[in-house]
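Appendix B: complex inputs.
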Amino acid sequence: MNRSPLAPATFPELPVITGVELRIARAQYKTWDRCDLTFVTLAPGTAVAGVLTQSKCPSPEVEWCRRALVLGQARALVVNAGNSNAFTGSRGRDAVEAIAARTAGHLGCQPSDVFVASTGVIGVPLPIDKAEAGLDAAFAADPCGWEDATNTIGTTDTFPKAATTSAMIGDTRVTLVGIIKGSGMIAPDMATMLGFIFTDAAVGAEFLQAALRTANASTFSCITVDSDTSTSDTVLGFATGAAGNAPIGDEDDAGADAFVAALTDLCRQLAQLVVRDGEGATKFIEIAVSGAESDRSAHVVAMSIANSPLVKTAIAGGDANWGRVVMAVGKAGEPADRDTLSIRFGSIQVAQGGMVVEGYDEAPVAAHLQGQDVEIGVDLGLGEGRATVWTCDLTHGYISINADYRS
Amino acid sequence: MNRSPLAPATFPELPVITGVELRIARAQYKTWDRCDLTFVTLAPGTAVAGVLTQSKCPSPEVEWCRRALVLGQARALVVNAGNSNAFTGSRGRDAVEAIAARTAGHLGCQPSDVFVASTGVIGVPLPIDKAEAGLDAAFAADPCGWEDATNTIGTTDTFPKAATTSAMIGDTRVTLVGIIKGSGMIAPDMATMLGFIFTDAAVGAEFLQAALRTANASTFSCITVDSDTSTSDTVLGFATGAAGNAPIGDEDDAGADAFVAALTDLCRQLAQLVVRDGEGATKFIEIAVSGAESDRSAHVVAMSIANSPLVKTAIAGGDANWGRVVMAVGKAGEPADRDTLSIRFGSIQVAQGGMVVEGYDEAPVAAHLQGQDVEIGVDLGLGEGRATVWTCDLTHGYISINADYRS
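Resulting structure:
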């Protein structure tokens, strides 16, 4: 697979997070010449939070994490690439339990301290023997760096995706690093979105969970490649506490706002990297809706535009076809009034008050659409609600990847 | 544009509907060598009913029809092809009013007896001078047949789409003919779905409206090409009464059930023809969902599958990728239990009770997917709710048509 034209030039410099150790191994879930098992050990006392797919047909890994999150503590993360283990009945559940038990045996912790995520083909039970052998090999291996771990969690990703940020909590600087994989919300049956965030901040599990939910609402929940939601989407956050800041237990504690802002910044970077690796993507599209009756309503309208095949193909073609934006607003089902609707591409107003602007000149809009970064602004003219979402264009590349995937 | 590979071999033989006269003319809404204005006169006393787009940004034609339908009577239908007149502010409203007034002048009827529908590019006001000259030319022209009228309402359609059926009301046979255009629910900005149904049955307008709503729910509302809903979708039904049957005023009258059944049959034929002309379509897909908690819930799940780009591209590639069906069920948001879920392709069961069937053999499924007609069956195993919907595959043809349309 060619590297996405929207990929950053290089993998970022990422700091060590004290209390986090990365290792990789070859479980050979598929016949391929690469590592496909990532094993992360976390210092005792690490707090954990997570947001998981809302699919009604989730993988057993998702169900496992959902239960384990209740306890709020983590000692290990295991990520399998090449097999999602989704829709595999009791054999899938057995595999997850076996991985947790084997890991707990190695580390001398409880199975419920072990978090598991898998990505790959749906419907094939994860082979327990390969998982156990892979875990044993990883446990015996030397620690590795972020780039190796990021490559190992990937599947159809065309580049490794990671980001970092930091925040001051009182006088203490805390550091956050996130790694993520995914080429679509789901893309082929090989592209679940899995994201893992590590920080040395001392934060309580309950606060971490609230912070991750808040960050998620304006970041991961605001991206779409193809409107298809995975059975396995998982974002987990781990906080080792090694930075030694005054622990944050709730939102009123000093540094709480700074931490949430840093976490949100990191999640936005990671989310946008997933869009930049969207299957077949040649353009990165930001859609900003304002003037809606509520923020929720603005989000629905923005996602209706972001998921419209006609809008996405128009942008792929560099076509300033704003009529398709009108269509997508109209079909969203949210309050909208044609006669107060305004639309811009980049900074160029194209429609206002329910019709095209006087003396509309398509040339500057067409020039904006020639770039890799496209911005669509819609003002509904009804209220104060706003939302911003990110997507990519829909191209022949998407069809080629998905129509020819297993055949 | 090449004729769709899913098109019927020939245009059907269609009977005359007494009380309906068809004429066509060249309004030259675009620079093209074809008729683009269709003018239908209806005998005095003709009842009318309609279902219109639920878009929040409807065209002025849709708003006009919605108001005129309240009166329940029609003397004329005018259809413009090449310009949808949508999102054109007060100038668009002026154009519709001018068309109704000019037609009323020709026929000596009320403007509210005139129904107007337009399809084509969004955002360009329909030129009133061209519309009026076209109407005058049509009024002076000789009547034409169904095929000419069907071709004239079309835009990016690759074949003219029409169907007929009949029903016995008491001892009287009544006849129904429908014509339709559209290559997507909306396809490019040139493919609104417009459907027109004509019958010689004597039925009251209120009953006709109820019958059309009933028929619509299981036919036009059950098709999707690309999930994008037009600003202009319109289906109108006209009943001239010329058959002389005992008039049907409500659902308890003799023949009411037979009429609704015939109308539903006709609507289903027309709806399926639109899917068969779906942009870039190479396969016709029927999706039947059973075992849902309600019919409504089954419909939502079926449409989630039908709109999934990953399901549609898998079928385009002849790929028996049932994991994508699981994904689409899971993301629908309706009650579903992975462990009671069953999936079949054609008559071949692939998954049952939350996992792949014992000894699953992909070969017969792959063979089914090689055909032009593909059937996906999903049983949720929860209740008695069922729904069937129709769609087409998603191919390079769709991208070519829509990414390169105006550029």
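The longest helix of chain A spans residues 256-276.
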